Amino acid sequence: MLEFLKRIFNPEPSSVTARERLRLVLLSDHLALAPDVVESLKADLIAVISKYVDVDAAHCDVTFEQQESVVAMLANIPILGMKPAARAPRPAPPVLRQAQDDMPPPMIDTAPASAAIADAPDAPADAAVAPVAAAAPKPRRRRRRRASVNAAPAH
Amino acid sequence: MHTSSQLSAGYLREDPLPAAPPAQQPRGRCIVVTSGKGGVGKTTTTANVGVALASTGARVVLIDADVGLRNLDIVLGLEARVRHHVLDVLEGKAELDDALVSDKRVPTLKLLAASQTREKDDVDTTAFHAMVDQLRERFDYVLIDCPAGIEKGFQNAIVGADEAIIVCTPEVSAVRDADRVVGLLGDRVKITLIVNRLRPALVRRGKMLSVDDVNAILRLPLLGVIADEPGVIVSTNKGEPIALDAASPTGDAYRKIAGRIAGTDTSTPEIPREASFLDKLFGGQR
Amino acid sequence: MSARRIVVTSGKGGVGKTTTTANLGAALALRGKRVVLVDADIGLRNLDLVLGLEKRIVFDIVEVVEGRCQLRQALIKDKRFGEMLSVLPAAQTRDKTAVTENQFAKVIDDLAEMCDYAIIDCPAGIEHGFRNAVAGAREAIVVTTPEVSAIRDADRVIGKLNERGLPIRLVINRIRPDMVRSGDMLSVEDVCEILSAELLGIVPDDEDVIDTTNRGEPIALRAESRLAGIYEKIARRLEGEIVPFTQLNAPNFLSRFLGRKAG
User: Fold this and answer.
1) B198 - beta bridge partners?
2) Do C13 and B38 touch (CB under 8 A)?
3) Which residue numbers of A have CB closer than 8 Å to B's CBs?
4) What is the pLDDT of residues B147-186, one digit of tens each?
5) What phi and psi, each to the nearest 5 degrees, are found at residue B139?
6) All residues at 6 or more sequence positions from A8 whose CB lies less than 8 Å from its CB, including other chains
7) Residue among A14, A22, A25 whose CB faces C184 most closely
8) CB 3.0 to 4.6 Å from B227: which of A152, B245, B272, C178, for a disulfide?
9) B281 at the C interface (CB within 8 A)?
10) Residue C30 pLDDT > 90, yes or no?
């Protein structure tokens, strides 16, 4: 009788719980058992991030952790500084004479880093990323500017 | 007195928790849960006896000695919280306190998980023994979940224990294997018996060995008898040890076993009875 | 023509490897195949017990490997099957380190010349005993029950077998249709999806298995038992036949009330 009532008020069958727990635990087990895959993933991750920042490759660490309902990758990647190419001044964006209201704003900010950022002290990054995906540069909305011949680069 | 392997292992650092000097504290008991035969309920027993003991306030640590095929974490529902394991501690890659997993449901219970990727041969038995001794200074009970078999995994698991619980099902293979293990343990430890997965209806019909049949061969003090209950499968599915279920007869059996271990329950173990008419009507051995 | 060499393994103990080995061997022998069953669980032997041959053991695999007897002398013929079924028992007073992988593989090679099927009953675990048992095999049957720990261990063992390139087929043992229906047990579909292995057989939980083990009679010999039919189908699938899986029904209200078996 109690089981019947329990089933009314707690509908998720235990087999569903079991399936989900097994999925996560086996994923954790498989990752732990494939150190070569993890090494390749780490190498690829460092290569991608190194396009934008200088990293301390010798002290990079990638681990996987089972969290509540997901297996998450945790990457600890010490950053030594911006890449010189990333710090170079970029050409001014083209002057737009047409009303910009007709066009959607570009999604990614392609303007170079400002002087303020370039002078910032080296900061170690401790990027906790979840779920399994490397951190991508965050897209920022551009503020619309009035058309101007001598527009200063935005940052 | 420490051997060099113990000194190189990282765990012999200062215990960060305040504790009374060892001389004033009674040393915890170390009990290995073993069987020889696999699949008879060692892990379920370790988990549930541990939970039942800790629910009375005792400080309990459960150690999974099944390197490579760990399951104590998943039976307890703590698999998502394991960060480090026994080998990490023995090899100095992690602090003992970082490896101990807490159970929110039972605050005085801790789990020390096994590695899933290494092998039983990787465990340094001497270092394991020293770690168990250290744990006995901090916990009232150290329960060790022994793997199936009688090889290195078994040898590691029994090394620090001075008591053993043999878990045996009423089946000829299990009894035979338990008998072998009793022989191997010899006089070095105090041994008790739990008969698991009894089906009283089959015993009555002569299709299953009785508790007396089992103990006629093993001749051990009986700690408890547990009837086969489908609820155990459900509890493992959910990761909720059945000893936490106040309504379950299996939970009750484990709580009584814990009481007998602690010395607070002096009753003789009951042999479970067959399910009654009403039990069958409502679908279960309740 | 050399025999098929199949290891029956699981990782988890107690899921039914020995029962599966014994009954599959019996079913194949009943179909006229010459079968040798090998107990690789040195130190904790049980294949002899399950088949009721424990009183007939004279020599064991360790004595063969150590040259103290010929291989043929150690084989016990099970008279219930004519000349078709033999057992090579394990030693009881040694442990798994008594035999190396190469020695075990050599024994299986020798056996393969004298039978159609050499089926190896693997011990629990993934250590020495497992490595020995797998050393002689060319195919694997992984046995699991629909329980979380068993599936986790089966997954681990499948990984190990994949490393060795052994083709794998799955037997799901002790399924309880009533519990699957109520959502209290993982289904066959769940297990197959999680383990991604080809299904060879589905064996329901059956209380008669305990009785037959007590008596040392493989259930495959009990023609009236539905399990006999199921093991026969597994044998046929192993031989390459396409055989539909037996429908397992959950017990209805009355059968549970009257205490009858499921299905």
Assistant:
1) B227
2) yes
3) 1-3, 14-15, 17-18, 21, 24-25, 28-29, 32-33, 65-68
4) 999 999 999 999 999 999 999 999 999 999 999 999 999 9
5) -125, 150
6) none
7) A14
8) B272
9) yes
10) yes
- Residues of chain C with C-beta less than 8 angstroms from the C-beta of A4: none
pLDDT at C246: 87
Chain C residues in contact with A13 by the CB 8 A cut-off are 182-184
What is the residue range of A127's domain? 1-87+113-134
Contacts of B127 (CB under 8 A, 6+ apart): B5, B6, B9, B90
Is the whole model's pTM more than 0.80, yes or no? yes
Q: Which domains does chain B have, with CATH numbers?
A: 27-264 (3.40.50.300)
What is the extent of the structural domain holding C86?
4-257
Residue that the structure tokens 């916990």 belong to = B139
Q: What is the ipTM of this complex?
A: 0.90
In a domain, residue C262? The reply is no
Give the mean pLDDT of chain C.
Answer: 93
A16 touches chain C (CB under 8 A): yes
**Does A94 reside within a domain?**
no
H-run or E-run covering C101: helix C101-112
Q: Give contacts of B81 with chain A, Cβ < 8 Å.
A: 66
Chain C residues interacting with chain B (CB cutoff of 8 angstroms) = 11-15, 18, 43-44, 46, 49-50, 92, 95-97, 123-129, 147-150, 152-153, 156, 176, 179, 184-186, 207-208, 210-211, 213-214, 256-257, 259
- Across-strand partners of B125? none
Question: How many domains, in total, are found in chain C?
Answer: 1
Q: Is C168 within a domain?
A: yes
pLDDT at B6: 41
Phi-psi region of C20 (alpha: psi -120 to 50; beta: other; left: phi over 0): alpha
Give the one of A19, A26, A30 whose C-beta lies nearest to C186's C-beta.
A19
Q: How far apart are CA C238 and CA A94, in angstroms?
A: 72
Nearest Cα neighbor of C207 from C261, C147, C143 is C261
Please indicate if any CB of chain C lies within 8 Å of the CB of B172. Answer: yes
Spatial CB neighbours of C244, under 8 Å, sequence gap ≥ 6: none
Specify the residue for token string 């290195």: B152
Degrees, nearest 5: CA angle B285-C144-B156:
95
DSSP state of C55: G
Q: List CB contacts (< 8 A) between B286 and chain A.
A: 2
Residue in B286, B36, B86 with CA at minimum distance from that of residue C124? B36
Residue B210 above 50 pLDDT? yes
3-class DSSP state for residue C169? strand
Does some domain include residue C211? yes
Confidence grade of residue A98 (pLDDT, cut at 50, 70, 90): low
Stretch B205-223: mean pLDDT: 95
Task: Tell me, yes or no, whether A151 lies in a domain.
Answer: no
Q: How many CA atoms lie within 13 A of A65 on its CB side?
A: 14
Question: Bigger pLDDT: C67 or A135?
Answer: C67
Q: Do the Cβ atoms of B115 and A29 come closer than 8 Å?
A: no
In a domain, A139, yes or no: no
- The number of folded domains in chain A is 1
* Of A59-73, A111-125, C208-222, minimum mean pLDDT range: A111-125
Which of B228, B28, A31, A91 is CA-nearest to residue C159?
A31
Burial tier of A148 (Cβ tally within 10 Å: 0-12, 13-18, 19+): exposed
Q: Are residues B80 and A14, on separate chains, in Cβ contact within 8 Å? A: no
